[in-house]
Amino acid sequence: MDGTIAQARTKLRGEAGEFHKQLVALVPKLRIQALALTRNRAAAEDLVQDAVANALAAQESFTPGTNFAAWMHRILRNRFISTLRKQRETTDIEDLPSSAFAVGAAHEDRMVLKELSKALGRLPSDQREALFMVVLQGMSYEEVAEATGCAVGTAKSRVFRARRQLQVWLAGEERSASSLPKPDERTGRRPGVQQLGA
Amino acid sequence: MVRGSAFMLKELPAASSLPARTMSKAKSGGADDASAHPRATRSDKGSSEAFDIWLQQGLHKLYDSVAKEPVPDELLKLIEQDLAERNK
C-alpha cells in the first residue's frame, strides 16, 4: 500500500514538474500574446501573471500529452476577455517596447517602427493576436485556431485582414484590401482608415 | 500617403531585401501601381508578399526584445511555490 502511494506521488511529482517546466518555457510567448491583446506593458505583465495563477489552480484539468500551449493561450485569452477588455483602449506610444526605439536604431528607423506600432494598435485585438501568433511565434493556422477557440478559416481570415489593413495604412495599397469597408463616396476614405501623412 | 509609405519602406533597413521592383513601384506610384488596376494582378501579389516580408521584419524588430526578457522573479516564485506544495 505504502509502495503504491509512493509510486503515485513520484508520478505526480514528475507530471507536476513537467507541467511547471512547460509553463516557464511558454512565458515569453504568453507575454507576446498578452501584449497583442492589451497593447500595454503593465497590463500585459499582469495578464500573464493572472493567467499563470489560473493555470496553476486548474492544472488538474489539463490532460498530459495534449497541446499545452493551446491550453495556456486559451486561459490567457479568457482571462483577458473577462477582466481587461474594457481597459484596452488605454494604449499609447509609451506602452510599446522601448528597446525597439532606443539607441542603435537610426532616427528614420525609429520613426518607421513607431508608425508600424501605431498602426498595429489600431487593429482589432483578435486580428493583432492572430497576426502575432503566426508572424512572431511561427504558429500554424490550426494552432492559432485551437489557441483562440475559433475555426481555422477564421484564424486565416484574421491574419489576412490584419496584413492587408496594415498594408492599406502603411503602404497605400488600397486595392489589396478588397474585403475592407467601401470608401465613402464623398470623401473617398474608407471608414476607420486613417490616411498617414494627411 | 503613397509617398509617405514609400519613405517608410525605403527607410526601414530590413526592407533592403524587398524586391527592387516593388520598392520603385511604391516610390513612384506610377502606372504599375496596384491601385491603378481594376482587378488583382501578379504585381498585386508580389507587392503583398513584399509587404508581408517587410511586416515580419518590422514585428520582429519591435517585439523580439520583449520575448527575450527573462521570466520575472515574481512569476518564477509563484510557479516554484506551487511545485513545492505539490511535491510535499
Automatic annotation (TrEMBL), chain A:
Protein name from the UniProt record: RNA polymerase sigma factor
Alphabetized UniProt keyword annotations: Sigma factor, Transcription, Transcription regulation
UniProt KW Phosphoprotein keyword: no
Bias type Basic and acidic residues, positions: 173-188
Gene3D superfamilies: 1.10.1740.10, Winged helix-like DNA-binding domain superfamily/Winged helix DNA-binding domain
CDD domains xref list: Sigma70_r4
Family of this protein: Belongs to the sigma-70 factor family. ECF subfamily.
Entry superkingdom: Bacteria
Residue ranges of every copy of the RNA polymerase sigma factor 70 region 4 type domain listed in the record: 114-166
Domain called RNA polymerase sigma-70 region: residue spans: 28-88
PANTHER family: RNA POLYMERASE ECF-TYPE SIGMA FACTO, RNA POLYMERASE SIGMA FACTOR RFAY-RELATED
Residue numbers spanned by region Disordered: 173-198
Organism: Craurococcus roseus
Pfam family, one: Sigma70_r4_2
UniProtKB/TrEMBL annotation, chain B:
InterPro entries in the cross-refs: NepR (IPR041649)
Organism for this UniProt entry: Craurococcus roseus
Matching Pfam families: NepR (PF18557)
Domain Anti-sigma factor NepR: 57-81
Residue segments, region Disordered: 19-47
Identification of the protein by name: Anti-sigma factor NepR domain-containing protein
Taxonomy, superkingdom: Bacteria
